[in-house]
Amino acid sequence: MDRGGRRVFAGLTFSVSAGTALIVTGPNGVGKSSLLRTLAGLVAPAEGDLNLEGASQPDMAVHEHAHYFGHQDALKPALTALENLTFWQSFSAPAPSPGFKSAVMKPVQALEFLGIGHTARLPAAYLSAGQRRRLSLARLLITPRPLWLMDEPTSALDTASEARLLDLMNNHLSGGGIIIAATHSPLNLSTIVRLHLETAPEPMAPLSQERDA
Ligand SMILES: Nc1ncnc2c1ncn2[C@@H]1O[C@H](COP(=O)(O)OP(=O)(O)OP(=O)(O)O)[C@@H](O)[C@H]1O
């Protein structure tokens, strides 16, 4: 994986099973966000392959089976909260997978579920940071996709919203979904494997993967 012409990491191999969250940790700048952005199809890998085994539509790229919940909220500020979600619903095609079950919500339901139903008619620009974060999160609930790529998913959320997010993440796992999350904070999820990226002298970073009991 290269950023700005520099090799950030190399030789990275990992796999994640259905119903499992891969928690990516490591110091600032080691490449956690870059890894997620690569999986999300936003950055091309310098070399290597990404595969999603068992997908019902294997011709679709990994990122087409994924939702990316990154640092930026991916909202159009002039559109209302509801218009943003309606846009995302038409923009992101469902990616059904055998063994993956997801309770899909309508945009209004997703807003209500995340406690921001009252913002439906407000331009996204008027929402607070935490409300925007929840609106961005609502995108994951309106289109079923088995892979959730989440970069510091709890940032800007209050305690209640964080608890709801963890419930959502655990529901996604129990429905056979997969989560790959970069975080500096512990996440109370049901089934976790860990990938720790370590800073190393140029040109590459070593890595380790271990499973929680
Ligand atoms: N668009 C870019 N152009 C050039 N270099 C970049 C770009 N994006 C990231 N980098 C570099 O890639 C490296 C990895 O950055 P990345 O954001 O993936 O790290 P991180 O592990 O997520 O860090 P943090 O914990 O601070 O969020 C850093 O050295 C960063 O400066």
UniProtKB/TrEMBL annotation:
<dbReference type="InterPro" id="IPR003439">
    <property type="entry name" value="ABC_transporter-like_ATP-bd"/>
</dbReference>
<dbReference type="InterPro" id="IPR003593">
    <property type="entry name" value="AAA+_ATPase"/>
</dbReference>
<keyword id="KW-0201">Cytochrome c-type biogenesis</keyword>
<keyword id="KW-0813">Transport</keyword>
<dbReference type="GO" id="GO:0017004">
    <property type="term" value="P:cytochrome complex assembly"/>
</dbReference>
<dbReference type="GO" id="GO:0005524">
    <property type="term" value="F:ATP binding"/>
</dbReference>
<dbReference type="InterPro" id="IPR027417">
    <property type="entry name" value="P-loop_NTPase"/>
</dbReference>
<dbReference type="GO" id="GO:0016887">
    <property type="term" value="F:ATP hydrolysis activity"/>
</dbReference>
<feature type="domain" description="ABC transporter">
    <location>
        <begin position="1"/>
        <end position="212"/>
    </location>
</feature>
<keyword id="KW-0472">Membrane</keyword>
<protein>
    <submittedName>
        <fullName>Cytochrome c biogenesis ATP-binding export protein CcmA</fullName>
    </submittedName>
</protein>
<keyword id="KW-0067">ATP-binding</keyword>
<dbReference type="InterPro" id="IPR017871">
    <property type="entry name" value="ABC_transporter-like_CS"/>
</dbReference>
<comment type="similarity">
    <text>Belongs to the ABC transporter superfamily.</text>
</comment>
<dbReference type="InterPro" id="IPR005895">
    <property type="entry name" value="ABC_transptr_haem_export_CcmA"/>
</dbReference>
<dbReference type="Pfam" id="PF00005">
    <property type="entry name" value="ABC_tran"/>
</dbReference>
<keyword id="KW-0547">Nucleotide-binding</keyword>
<keyword id="KW-1278">Translocase</keyword>
<dbReference type="GO" id="GO:0022857">
    <property type="term" value="F:transmembrane transporter activity"/>
</dbReference>
